[in-house]
Each structure stands twice: as C-alpha cells, then as structure tokens.
Amino acid sequence: MPELGSVRKPRRGWKIAGVAAFVLAIGAGGVGAATATSWLPENPASATVPTVAAPTTPPATPVELALEPKQGTVSYNPAVPVVAQVQAGTIHSAILKETETGATTDGELSDGGRKWVSGSALAFNTDYTFSVTTMDDNGTLETQASTFSTVPAANEADMWMYPANGSTVGVAQPLEFHFSEPVANKDAVEKAIRITSATGQKGAFHWYSDTMARYRAASYWPANTALKVDIKLFGVDYGNGQIGNFNKTNTINIGDKVVMEADASAKVVHIFINDKLARTFLASMGDERFPSAAGFLVLTADKQRFATFDAATIGLKPGDPAYYGKLKVEYATRLANSGIFIHLAAPVAIPYLGKVNLSHGCIGLDREGASWVFNNMRPGDLVHTVGTGHPTNTIAPTDGFGDWNIPFARYANK
C-alpha cells in the first residue's frame, strides 16, 4: 500500500501548518483575533452614555412683607409698636433706627421668625428708618427700607398734678390735674390715670374745664395712709391729634385727719385731730356785709408768715366805711383764691374775739391760735364753716378747693 502512505504525509503536514498558523494567530492577536469579534465589549468612544438631568430648585413662594407704619407715614404715635410681618419665608433681620443719629430701637422676633415687633417706645418729633431683610424658602435674601416720622412737638401734650409726688396732705385734698392741651377724649384720659387708696376707695373725676380736672372720693381719704397715682398718658390721644408724652407713678401721703369747725354764730373754732378735740380758739369772722363763706373749705399750700392785705383787691375804695387800705397781718393761711385766710386778727379786733364778727370774710384768731394753725395744719386739712346765716353762700369750686360742697353723685356725673 505504498500509494496510501504517500498520500497521508501531505495531509499531516497541512494539519501541522494549520496548528502553527493558529498558534501564530494567538500570539499575534490573542484568541479573539482568530475568532469572531461579537463577544468583545464595545469601544467606549463609540458607546452611547445615558444623560442624567441636573437637579432643579422649585421656585420659592414670593415673600409678602407688610410694614407698620407704612412708608412715608407722618405723625406716627410713638407709643404704638413698629411691626414687620411676612406671610411666606422668614424675617432674617430688622433694624429700626433714628435716621439722624443712628440710635437703634430693640425688637423681638416671634411666630417662627415671621413677625418682628419693636420692644420700646419711640421718641416724639423724630425721623426713623426701618430696614427689614427677608429670606424666602430657597434662602434668597431681600431688603426693604421705609422711612416715617413720629408725632411732632406741636402735638406733644403734657400734664402736671397737684399735689406733687411725695407730698403729705390732709384727708380732704382733691387731686388736681392740669393738661397742656384741651382734652376732648376725657374717657381715654381718665382710664389712663388710676388712683388707688389704701382702703380701695372709689372716686370720680370732675372736669371743671377741658384743661383741668379733679378727683376725689365720696368721703375723705383714710388718715395716715397713701394714695398711688399711676399715670399712663404716653401715647394717649387727648383729641385733635394731641398725644400724651409721659408715664409716671406718684405717691401722695395722707396725714392725720385735721378738721376745723368754725362757728360764726358762736365766734369760736374747734380743731379736731383724728376726730378728737385738740384745740379751741376764740374767733372773729365775716361781718354782715362780708359774711364768711359757709360750707367746706380746704387749706391751700399758700402760707405767709407776714402778708399785706390790700382793700382794693376786694373792690373797696377810700371813703368806704369798710375800707382798710393796706393791712399788714401775720400767720396768713389761705383758704380761697378770692382772699379768704385764717390769720392773726388786726390789733383793733383782738378785744372783740369771741364777741363780734368784724372781718371781711376771713377767720381772725389771736396770736396763739393763728400761729398754731400756721404751724400745725397743712394743705388738704378741712375747714367747715357754720352759723354764717347764709348756708348756701359757699365758695366756687375752683376758688380754692370747694369740691366738698358738691354732692358726690353730682360730682361724679362730671
């Protein structure tokens, strides 16, 4: 079979060559070079990369800022708080300052940072700048500034009170309030003045004019106690754009209950201290032409160790039998603005004390009596005059303090 053997040799050589070619192929390019390329990863440069959308911020709810007072406001009441408030977002900062000086007014945030309110009163007659920075839900800041001015000096209303803070007065002393401007809103002013007595006495105001009012209780103040007068007039509208300018608390001390009972018919005075008779003095009071005022009078603060009475001040002229020219007196304690005093009787009247009424309406005493009253009785002590023959001839309420001649029901009815 030599033919068969010669045929197989070439086939074996081809097989070896095929294997060698396969090995070379592996050496040159690896297995992958000798086979199909479908199983290889794609070329990164030619691959499609998925697109990722950039994160987006939803639009913030617009911040709505409300300011009080509004831009350009004039005559703003300095007692009314300044307010900033937002409906969305928060208040990042608020600065309230005097435009001229830069002095700031404190304030406080509340309602989760959505409201700012000033914490102290403003000044009268002053320009202010109010700058508020808000922040929306996305953290964006925005600043708004407004300007306004407070009540001008021409509309600033004051008040003073008698007796003064810390004074000691008698049990019959009404409290008197004088206002620098006419008061139209009387109820508002009365509510702003609170009077408290040691026993809780209730009293009432009585307005004698638009600029003067008094306050008393139905009965005398309790002896040896104190009254607290809490005045909260700052920012109170008196009316007609006039605004109260202060708050203050006064204390008025009440001394002993001292009452002089002056009897014109008996020509004598009895002085009671805390309802016990303390002194009795003979007196000379008003004559028939000039009778002493009846009813209740209250000692004023006017005391003159030496005084001169001028007859012309009560309408007397030379030639009139009652004319006395200019008379020097001692220990003069005033009861009424019209010229009623307790004083040392004139020398010519001393022999007639307790016998004849010779005065022009005053209460004349001897030196002991006049000096005792001068040194021991004080403003607010009471004089009750009887026996004049003219019981309705009382002093006018504002001729001194004639308040106690008005029944309390009528007094409290303004």
TrEMBL record:
**Stored InterPro entries:** Big_10, LD-transpeptidase, LD_TPept_cat_dom, Transpep_catalytic_dom
Q: What GO annotations for molecular function exist for this entry?
A: acyltransferase activity; peptidoglycan L,D-transpeptidase activity
Entry-linked CDD domains: LDT_IgD_like_2 (cd13432), YkuD_like (cd16913)
Its signal peptide is none
For this record, the Gene Ontology CC terms, alphabetical, are: extracellular region
Which stretches make up the L,D-TPase catalytic domain? 258-386
**Pathway in which this enzyme or protein is active:** Cell wall biogenesis; peptidoglycan biosynthesis
UniProt lineage: Bacteria, Bacillati, Actinomycetota, Actinomycetes, Micrococcales
**GO biological process, any:** cell wall organization
Question: This chain belongs to which protein, by name?
Answer: L,D-transpeptidase
Which keywords belong to this entry? Acyltransferase, Cell shape, Cell wall biogenesis/degradation, Peptidoglycan synthesis, Transferase
Catalytic positions are: H343 (proton donor/acceptor), C362 (nucleophile)
Is Cell wall biogenesis/degradation a UniProt keyword of this protein? Answer: yes
